[in-house]
Design a protein that fits this description.
Length: 174
């Protein structure tokens, strides 16, 4: 039997911030230790994935119009649930964002479409299993530049979140 192990994950640095006179402030990386990783030699099954979330990050002052355009395009093309706008930090998310909740069956069409159409926006795509912290920090995929996610604000265990009923009515092909 393999001994339990842990991994240290460095969360991406937020972008440098201009502080005046041409000087930039760099925020140090934050590390998170994951100690609940399985010690099984067997691979995990994709049946653990109940649904997915895509978090679309934007700057309310500069990139919200681009985020609005992307949101409109998503709603026109995919049967998803578009979440509320969060113009301030919310939960583990260190930047303004909205969530796109979608069924696992849409992954193969929506995620490649996001890869081609995200523009300058960052998008975090993660599975929904019974471990939200692991979903956001260990098992996500980033489209665009990663932004900070605060795993300490996420539980280790929760019920898997089913995809809610879509609130969009697609009329265009992806």
């Amino acid at each position: 039997m393999m001994a339990p192990y842990s991994r240290i994950f460095a969360v991406a640095r937020p972008p440098r911030t201009e502080v005046g006179c041409g000087h930039q402030l760099s925020v140090p990386r934050k590390t998170i230790e994951m100690t609940d990783l399985p010690d099984s030699p067997d691979p995990r099954s994709t049946r653990e994935i109940v649904s997915y979330h895509a978090h679309v990050y934007y700057d309310p002052a500069t990139t919200r119009p681009e985020a609005e355009r992307l949101r409109t395009w998503i709603g026109e093309r995919f049967a998803v649930t578009l979440g509320r706008w969060h113009d301030v930090k919310v939960g583990p998310h260190d930047q303004a964002m909205y969530q796109v909740a979608f069924a696992a069956e849409l992954f193969s069409s929506l995620v490649p479409w996001l890869m081609l159409n995200h523009g300058s926006l960052s998008v975090l795509v993660h599975p929904n299993t019974t471990n939200p912290r692991r979903d956001h920090l260990v098992n996500p995929l980033w489209i665009g530049s990663p932004v900070a996610v605060h795993g300490d604000k996420l539980p280790d265990h929760a019920a898997g979140e089913q995809a809610p009923s879509p609130n969009t009515h697609p009329v265009l092909p992806p």
